[in-house]
Each structure stands twice: as C-alpha cells, then as structure tokens.
Specification:
This protein has about 180 residues and is an alpha+beta fold. The chain has 5 helices and 8 strands, in the order ααββββββααββα. Helices cover about 35% and strands about 30% of the residues. A hairpin with a 5-residue loop joins strand 3 and strand 4.
C-alpha cells in the first residue's frame, strides 16, 4: 500500500461527509414536517348495541370511528360517501345529535377519537335507499369500490374502505329486495 493509494482513498472522504450531512438535513426536515400534518385513522362497520338485561333484537348501527393518530389537532367537518369506478357518485352522511355520537363539527386532539352511530333499523330506511341508489347493479363489485370519507376543516380528506360486516349487511339487504 503506497502513498498514492491512500491519497486516492482519502479523496472520497469529503464526498461521503457531504452525502452524510445532506442526508441528516433531509431527515431532520422530514421529521419536523411530520408533526405539522393531520393524520386520522377511520373505520366504518356494522355493529349491534347490546344492553345488559335486554333480550330480543338488538339495535343495529353503522359506526364510524375516527382516531387522531397525529400530533396536530383536527376538526371533523363532514362525513361523505364516494362510489363508482368511472362515473363517481357522492353523498353526504348526516348524523343525529344523541348521547352516542360526537357532535358535528368536532375537534379532536392527538390520541382522541370521535364516534358516530347511525341507526340501521327498519324505521330509518336510509340504508335501503342507499343500496337502491348506489348499488343498483353488480352490488358486490360496487361495494368493493365504495369509500367512506372524513373531511377536516383545513380541506384534508381521509378515505377508508368499508368493513366486511357492513358489506355483508348490504349484500343481505340486496338479496331481500330481490
């Protein structure tokens, strides 16, 4: 190993140092911007409300659960549906102020959650209208492409697929309608 070899090897040291410094700066900027983003996790599914001491048919609900998993506070302003592959359709989901559901609009801090319970009983036949309007033909295929969306006051939207429990309920109601 002569002097020329070590001179050649040492000529790469400034390059590696520059690449390391640039990588550290990029990582620091990326991590600092992570705290400024709103991040929500959304789940939508069919649930039964079981009350101790009560028999019989338990009330059924579509439950929307929204959890703030980021470090920034978020205000939920709207709940919507999006369906369709090529020709998209949109619908706004209304909620009722009751003891089960969070108010709308609702502000959630990091780690907090908002829940919306939407009745699915026979009196409130919105689910039948929803199926008729949004799943007219090929319901199992259309259910694959339905997305439930949560909108925030800063214009950010969070989309999720439906849980299989709600998809099965919809397919069962489509079967009853035929």
């Amino acid at each position: 190993m002569d002097v020329e070899f070590w001179t050649f090897v040492n000529s790469f040291a400034p390059w590696f140092s520059a690449i390391g410094s640039l990588s550290a700066v990029i990582l620091a900027l990326y991590l600092s911007r992570q705290d400024k983003r709103v991040r929500l996790e959304v789940s939508v599914g069919h649930r039964l409300m079981i009350t101790p001491g009560q028999d019989g048919p338990h009330p059924e609900y579509l439950v929307v659960k929204i959890v703030n998993v980021g470090h920034r506070e978020a205000q939920i302003s709207n709940l919507t549906w999006k369906t369709g592959i090529f020709k998209k359709s949109y619908a706004v989901q209304t909620t009722i102020r009751d003891v089960l559901s969070s108010p709308m609009p609702h502000r959630i801090k990091d780690g907090e959650e908002a829940n919306y319970f939407i009745e699915l009983d026979s009196e409130n036949a919105w689910i039948n209208k929803f199926i008729k309007d949004f799943l007219p033909n090929f319901p199992s295929l259309r259910l694959w492409f339905i997305r439930f969306r949560v909108h925030t006051s800063i214009g950010k939207s969070f989309s999720t697929r439906l849980e299989s429990s709600f998809k099965q309920l919809c397919l069962k109601k489509v079967g009853q309608a035929l």
